[in-house]
Amino acid sequence: MVIRPEIAEDEACIGAVISAAFGNALHSDGNEAAIVERLRQDGQLTVSFVAVIGGKTVGHIAFSPVRIGGETGDWFGLAPLCVHPRFQRRGIGAALVREGLVQLRMIRAGGCVVLGDPEYYGRFGFESVSTLTYCGESSPFFQSLTMRGEAPTGDVEYHRVFSET
């Protein structure tokens, strides 16, 4: 398996992997591929990696800037993370998360937030904190990872495409 930054030629494959991965997911509204495409078009896809096996794209992860307390800073949201269903449960998602977090540290990100399973994301250092909220509420499923400095306080807003698409 190779984990690498996406290139222009990956765009269609990324969309196909996202659609396959979220096709039957209970928490999906079917717009994940369109969200990634809009982030890309708006220049907000800060970190985007693919997992490739035998020349085939089988996984993808994206990070985009978030606003906290109405302010833009150096924090990012992890979304979406996906692995094609035929390749799930092989450590591909974890490898994508680890590589994405390495890249965020390299660009000196202050931290990252994610909305997801606390057990899964907790192994990468994410934790739920009451000082960061999503949609005005704290939740064990909304987690953060501080990479440098102090964690900000406030409500987190993802890029507008997450609610428009």
What would you say this structure looks like, in words?
With 165 residues, the protein is of the alpha+beta class. It has a single domain (2-164), classed as Gcn5-related N-acetyltransferase (GNAT) (Aminopeptidase). 28% of the residues lie in helices and 33% in strands. It contains 5 helices and 8 strands, in the order βααβββαβαβββα. Strands 1, 2, 3, 4, 5, 6, 7 and 8 form an 8-stranded mixed β-sheet that branches. β2 and β3 form a beta hairpin. α1 runs antiparallel to α2 (32-41). It is globular. The mean pLDDT is 94.
What would you say about this model in short?
Helix content is 28%, strand content 33%. The protein is built from 5 helices and 8 strands.
Query: CATH topology, what is it called?
Result: Aminopeptidase
Average of the residue pLDDT scores: 94
Main sheet specs: 8 strands, mixed
Judged by helices, strands and strand pairing, the structural class is alpha+beta
Helix residue percentage: 25-40%
Which percent band covers the strand fraction? 25-35%
Overall CATH class: Alpha Beta
Radius of gyration: 15 Å
Shape: globular
Rounded to the nearest angstrom, the distance between the terminal CA atoms is: 32 Å
Q: What's the total number of strands?
A: 8
Please give the CATH architecture: 3-Layer(aba) Sandwich
The helix/strand series, from N terminus to C terminus, equals: EHHEEEHEHEEEH
Count of helix runs: 5
